[in-house]
Structures are given as structure tokens and as C-alpha cells.
Amino acid sequence: MKPIKKIIILGLAITSTFGCETKKTLETTSQEDFPFLAPQEKPNRSLSAAVERNYDAYMSLRPEQNELYTQFKYTELRGFEYNNGDGTLTRRDPSKVIFENGKYYVWYTYRNTPVKAVGMHRAKEANDTIPSADWDLAEIWYATSEDGFTWKEQGVAVPRPPKPEPGWRSVTTTDILKWKGKYYLYYQAFMEASGLRGDFCPVAVSYADSPDGPWTSANKVVIPNGPEGSWDQYSIHDPYPLVHEGKIYLYYKSDFDERPELKPSKIRMQGLAIAENPLGPFEKHPLNPIINSGHETTLFPFKEGVAAIVQRDGQEHNTIQYAKDWVNFEIASITELLPVAGGPFVPDAFTDTKDGRGITWGISHFTNAANDWNRNHSILTRFDCDLSLDIHDDKM
Ligand code: AAL
Question: What lines the ligand 1 site, CB under 6 Å?
Fold first, then answer.
């Protein structure tokens, strides 16, 4: 919680506890009044390693005023059915949420198959109707909502194209870009059942004049896998476009591991590809990978930089990170229960802002049964958090 909010809450608490007006106002409240707040400057005395680190690491933000610290809360969504949870119907990997035409929109991976997935380790048993993984044989669907809690499923946005077009096997894990009045959905385009060799796929794109479609496939790979031996040679996952400096900054994840028996790999990092045109070419950043951990990608403009929610995998999982220059990330906070595959509502995702305001909610997913995760279905959920620079009445 930001100190200013703390102070207001304390003021309210004093008023209600003692039944009298508090004399303190925001303008006159000072550090001396609240000695429990840590001093802004590092104390001029010997400090333990832990306290030293509290000033020097985490981007030198005081824990009491770290704007990139939050805890996450979850609420069940209304409007989605899951075939009684038998594993045959899944919704997962939501896009960012956008607000257009007076309502919120979200896109996601949708699978509705006669049987549940056999599991990536048994991918050879998959066929035209039997999926290997939860995200195999999927399409991209979308839903709209007026309040972010009750959703109306609108149907398919991007179907699986005919073989051999990119994505003929499965189109999944999409994210949205609004650029010069048009809409672009980037997504994983599988050309084989996930698990046959790994979770291998590149990224393709479809575009539309309206978020309601119709969507036209560019019918090409826009972000190809890297050359043999590179960190992203097998897959480009979780494409996540933002607009920065008049260009498309598309973050993505790849995974790699020296042990081929690990399918999917346990080592994952994130990279950046930049383009001036949504249909490409995208140029991969020479410093890639630029985030050393995480699984799915969740980022948002914050002040002049960009913040990333880094969850599930890697040494720096369970952190929120910040890159003032949109490339060199530092840990800003360590937290818990981070949204999986979070697609936040990012009002300034495409405005090329130099003063990103942060996020307060979004959609993420939960997967049923952790020890059988790639056979079971997933559900969409709402998450709420306080990663916003603005004060919201509902959070006081
Ligand atoms: C995820 C994402 C990608 C992977 C699989 C489906 O949640 O990282 O989309 O391919 O798992």
C-alpha cells in the first residue's frame, strides 16, 4: 500500500476510533508524525546485510512505498461453462483485456474436444480428434463483459486454418494489439501436436477492423523460431504486444533445456521483438533473453518504463520486475500467488505513454490437478491487485 493511502486510512481509523475529527491533513502530515515509516535515506550507521539490501536492491524502493508490490486476489467469473469439468472443454491463456464499444473484451485459447487430452508424454496417441495437451486442437475465442465479472462468450475469433497453413494443428495463447485503428491478434501457431518433439511452435497473426472481427489471417509466421543453437530455436510462446516509441514491442517466452526428456522444458526465459509494422518484420533484440524467468508473459507500461509479472519458473519467479528502458529488467518486488498467464486490463497498452499508470485487475487461468496438468482443463478467473499509480476509491 502506498504511504499516502496508509496515512488516509490511519486518519479514518483515528476518527472512527475516538469519535473526533483528525487534525492531520495530507499536506501537514510529515515523517515525524509517523516514525514507523522507514526513513527515505539509508541510516548513517552499520546495517545488517538484510537491511542494507532493503535499500539497495529492489530498485532502491522502500518496502513501505514500493508501488510495484501487491498481493493478488481471485474471483470466480460468471458466464462460462466447462462440460461439468470433465476435461473436454478448456479456456486458458487469456489476452490482455481491452475496453472498446462500451465493454471489455478478452480473447483466449478454447478447446472443446470429444475426449480430454492424452498428455504431452503420450503425444504419439493424439490424432485429429484426440488432443495431446490441454492446448492442442484449440481455437481462439472471445468474450465480452460490462463489469469484468460476468462474461458473454461471443464465439470463435480465429479458427484453425486448413493444413498446411501456420496453426493448422492448434491456434493458442493469443494477445491483442490495437494499432492505427486496426486490431491484431498474435498467437501460437502449432504445426504438430504439442509434445511430439516438445512444445514447438512459432507465432502467427490475424487482423480485423473491429474487435468483433471478422479476422483475416496473414497466413504467415511473423515471429519465427531462432536459428539452431539459439535460446529460442524451438518455440516462440506467449506473444505480448505493447506500443513504445512509435513501435510494436512484442515480448515473448521461449523454453529450452539440455535434457530432451523434459517435455516441456523446465527452463524458460523471455525475449523482445520490435517492429514498425504489425505484420512484421519483427527484429529480435540483441540482448535477448531479457527476462531470465517466468512462464507466460504479463507486462504493462509503468511510469516511463515497463513492468513485468514474472511467475512460475526460474530463479526469479514470484517477482514483479521493472525496466526503465523497456529492456533491462530489475526485481522491484517479491510476492506470492501471482496470476498464471495473466492478461491485465491495461488502459495505456497502446497509447505509447511515457507515464504508464499500472493495472488493478485482469483475467488469468487456473489448471485443474497439478500433477496431471497437461491432461486436464483450465478455467479463466479474475484477478485483482494494486499495481496502479492512481488512487481508486474502491481500494481505500
Ligand atoms: C502456456 C503457455 C503456452 C504454452 C502452453 C500453452 O500456458 O506458456 O501456451 O505453449 O502453456
Answer: 93, 135, 172-173, 188, 199, 237-238, 253, 295-296, 341
